[in-house]
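Design review, sub-item: ligand-bound model
Attendees: FS, YL, KQ
YL presented the inputs for the DAU complex:
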Amino acid sequence: MILVTGGAGFIGSNFVLDWFLHHDEPVVNLDKLTYAGNPENLAALQQSGAPHQLVQGDIGDTGLVERLLREHRPRAVLNFAAESHVDRSIHGPADFVETNLGGTFRLLEAVRAYWSELSRGEADAFRFLHVSTDEVYGTLGPDDPAFTEQTPYSPNSPYSASKAGSDHLVRAWFHTFRLPVLTTNCSNNYGPFQFPEKLIPLMILNAVDRQPLPVYGDGQNIRDWLHVSDHCSAIRRVLEAGRPGETYNVGGDSERSNLQVVNGICHLLDHLLPHPPAGGYKSLIQFVQDRPGHDRRYAIDARKIRQELGWVPSNTFETGLENTLKWYLAHSEWVGRVRSGAYRHWMETHYGSARSAP
Ligand code: NAD
Ligand code: DAU
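KQ shared the predicted structure:
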């Protein structure tokens, strides 16, 4: 079996659902169920009877992690658990350092103790796969080449600094203790079950409600978008065939400015929903104060994973965006439940009167 952490969040839940489309190997899913963790994302597994067990708990709870490892004897641990939203890391960095850095450290130590007692064959076959981000590389100028696995780390937000720190710990546990680790550094994901504090679901849901679409700064910041199902297939492939101690960049070759993304959503909605506002959904766009330390451009060079492991994404950004938008339109009950009191509080704190026009 495999132990997944953070598997009730956006990417983790997509990964677990995707796992059972390809395997019947059991999954134990350790998730703290913060505001971003939602067991409802995994409801389909109960109906299908897949061998999946959700355990509520913290990756930093050594006693709990040791017990899960002892009882279930996983052949791999996949670490998705993290605080993941850059804006929240600016409002309150402590949780980010606690989970992303401290939690990963304690998880690594518990896994190392378990792994060191495996038989030689089991220990050689064991993998610790750490799911990380392209944000650790910092920001690119308009003509800079895309990030490769050799690009020096240069994180600019509390979120990316805490993820960079966790990547360094994972690397060190390989070089010092020979723990067989793998790290993936992926670009921006989008798709079903993404918590609507992130750009794409936020813009879709605000537009449907005819609320302002808050674009930071001049809207020319660039992200390299990848559909979450392609991220999941990359992680499965790295787990299967990645070389211990290596890192793999994962990206969709889909660089878009934020304004292009928001305009794309508005254009789709103009055609999908009856009675668009006068001037179309674009008329809801409002340029607001920029994010402090806002990275200008991310772009991933994914040649290594393509050439070594034969992974390629299967969605284009245009079809992926349209399918995602239709998913949010079709899942209004899920949307209603995640936009609870806690969500409303975040929206008021972050987008309230303090974040007016620049
Ligand atoms: P998310 O915020 O949607 O989900 C994070 C999950 O981790 C939640 O279920 C939460 O309850 C859980 N969690 C948080 N703290 C925990 C703790 N201490 N112990 C156990 N569980 C805990 O995040 P996501 O977008 O699904 O990202 C998953 C991983 O992928 C993160 O490590 C993130 O850095 C990385 N990543 C995200 C993206 C992206 O675009 N979203 C891109 C590249 C990499
Ligand atoms: O690059 C990978 C990273 O992508 C992941 O590691 C993070 O976990 C994930 O949250 C994401 O980080 P970003 O900061 O790029 O994503 P976000 O959706 O918050 O913002 C995307 C871009 O859109 C960014 O340039 C900021 C901008 N933005 C975002 C919001 C929420 C706006 O203009 N307005 C908004 O309201």
